[in-house]
Amino acid sequence: MSTVETVRGPVDTAELGPTLMHEHVFVLSTEHVQNYGAGDWWDEEERVADAVRQLKAVRDRGIRTLVDPTVWGLGRYIPRVRRVAEQVDGLNVIAATGLYSFHELPHQYANRGPGLLIDSDVDPMAEDFVRDLTRGIGDTGVRAAFLKCVVEADGLVPGVERIARAVAHAHRETGAPITVHTNARRETGRLAADFFAKEGVDLTKVVIGHAGDSNDLGYLTELADRGVLLGMDRFGLDGYNGTEDRISTILALAERGYADRMVLSHDAACFIDYFGRPEERAEALQRFAPNWHFNHISDDVLPALRERGLGEDAIRTMMVDNPRRYFGGEGA
Questions:
Q1: What share of the chain is helix, strand, coil (3-state, %, to 5)?
Q2: CA distances for 157 relative to 51, 108, 162, 197, angstroms
Q3: Can you tell me the distance from the alpha carbon of 275 to that of 125, in angstroms, rounded to the nearest whole number?
């Protein structure tokens, strides 16, 4: 039996079921919330209750696992996520470790590490990632199950490269899989795959996040042929790529035999503080991304794929078998 850690403890990978592979329960800046939200637009109990409502709706559509790559830089706070998860029976939430930065390191790591002001044999960032995976996050007892980093438009600038190297170290030490945020327009998935291959990472355990923002079949099949999983994971964010184009690209890849190299998701959140107050967020999303929510794939995308001829075996491969294999379970 192969197991994977979730916010509520380990589960058999065979029980993961239909999985959304890149979603967030909360994306928040702790300093933003504490200094400007508390006593104004942030109500802890209201936001937790709203998240429970949203995740129950996900579960009721047959989704059984939500993979949450919220790490340092996106506001990971496991006690709040666990409060939500404990109220949604029948839905697994899987937590991540890693660091989300497009450029610079946090000051807390910048001067610590091999050859730096505070010298050490091992990068303390890598040690922290391994601790999250093997001992637990903070004092919560919740263990992360995968790693997250970024290779954005500016590529492997020094801070980003050091984070990615720490992620690779933690992968080699623990076997934990990796999700990397990439920029499809700049095709930085290539940089990520090249880097991780040189670092001795098993590329079959890497998701190239946001690959689905591209419709370039040459770029996508090149990545898939290297063994990585393609994150077709921003459904509803039409500013990056419209739903119809995303669907057509998935169909084209599946027709070429790549259903076993794709995972699906939205990159949505129960609440994200990038858009101001809750009412401002709701108004902005209704205008610019009305389908950017957890249920778009279940309600709209999967029916459209079926209508256009994609078989149930391929859908199960993307939604069930690929996530299970990524987390260490056997494929179908």
A1: 45, 15, 40
A2: 36, 18, 9, 18
A3: 30
Class of CATH domain 3-326: alpha beta
Q: What is the side-by-side order of every strand in the sheet holding 65-67?
A: 19-20, 65-67, 92-94
Could you tell me the CA-to-CA distances from 16 to 24, 25, 86, 293, 330 in Å, in that order?
Answer: 17, 18, 16, 21, 12
Residue 100: phi, psi to the nearest 5? Answer: -105, 105
Beta-carbon contacts of residue 258 (< 8 Å; ≥ 6 apart): 220, 221, 224, 230
Rg value, the chain, Cα: 19
The DSSP code sequence of 253-312 is HHHTT-GGGEEE----EEEEGGGSSHHHHHHHHHHH-TT-STTHIIIIIHHHHHHTT--H
186 vs 193: CA distance, rounded Å? 14
Q: What is the pLDDT of residue 183?
A: 98
Cβ partners under 8 Å of residue 305, min gap 6: 247, 250, 251, 315
Give the SS3 label for residue 251: helix
186-241 tens-digit pLDDT: 999 999 999 999 999 999 999 999 999 999 999 999 999 999 999 999 999 999 99
267: Cβ contacts below 8 Å, ≥ 6 apart: 22, 23, 24, 210, 233, 234, 237
What is the rounded distance in angstroms from the CA atom of residue 161 to the CA atom of residue 192?
10
Q: Which pTM does this prediction carry? A: 0.97
What is the rounded distance in angstroms from the CA atom of residue 164 to the CA atom of residue 149?
6
Residue type, 280: E
Model confidence at 330, pLDDT cuts 50, 70, 90, reads: low
Angle at 208 between CA 207 and CA 211, to 5 degrees: 130
Q: How confident is the model at residue 268 (pLDDT cuts 50, 70, 90)?
A: very high
How far apart are the C-alpha atoms of 118 and 204, rounded to whole Å?
A: 35
